[in-house]
Specification:
Orange_dom; HES_HEY; protein dimerization activity; MYOD Basic-Helix-Loop-Helix Domain, subunit B; transcription regulation; Hes family bHLH transcription factor 2; elongated
């Protein structure tokens, strides 16, 4: 069948595998920190090239500070009507985009400003059910945004 194993063999195997497992664990940590650095630097508006050699502690500290600055959402005991929570969520997204978009530098400043202004105007009359054909007392946007498809009744689910 097989050769009998001695107790010392298992101990030796563990002893020889320990450095290999530790090396893999450190590699996973370093890979994750590299990914975290790549995610957090653009959100903070910093160039990756200027921060190519950051210490692990610096990456973690920047991430902690960024997360601490995020607005905390408080959930009241009685939930607000769905329309209000939808509108507040939309406004929170626009506010977050207003902070992140200029820092990323993906769009030209003029285009970024136009986009943010358009989204702010639409937030004034955005509801989950339907939107009016034109915003009250606001000029029509230069390019109409695609409207979401009509939503069926809440009790009926359709995949389209």
């Amino acid at each position: 069948m097989g050769l009998p194993r001695r107790e010392g063999d298992a101990a030796e195997l563990r002893k020889s595998l320990k450095p290999l497992l530790e090396k893999r664990r450190r590699a996973r940590i370093n890979d994750s920190l590299g990914q975290l650095k790549g995610l957090i630097l653009p959100l903070l508006g910093r160039e990756n090239s200027r921060y190519s050699k950051l210490e692990k502690a610096d990456i973690l500290e920047m991430t902690v500070h960024f997360l601490q600055e995020l607005p905390a959402f408080s959930y009241p005991a009685i939930a607000p009507p769905p329309t209000d929570s939808y509108r507040e969520g939309y406004r929170a997204c626009v506010a977050r985009l207003a902070r992140v978009l200029p820092a990323c530098g993906v769009l030209e400043p003029a285009v970024s400003a136009r986009l943010l202004e358009h989204l702010r105007r639409r937030s004034a009359y955005t509801t989950p059910e339907a939107r009016p054909a034109s915003p009250p007392s606001a000029p029509s946007p230069p390019a109409p945004a695609p409207s979401p498809p009509a939503q069926p009744s809440p009790g009926l689910w359709r995949p389209w």
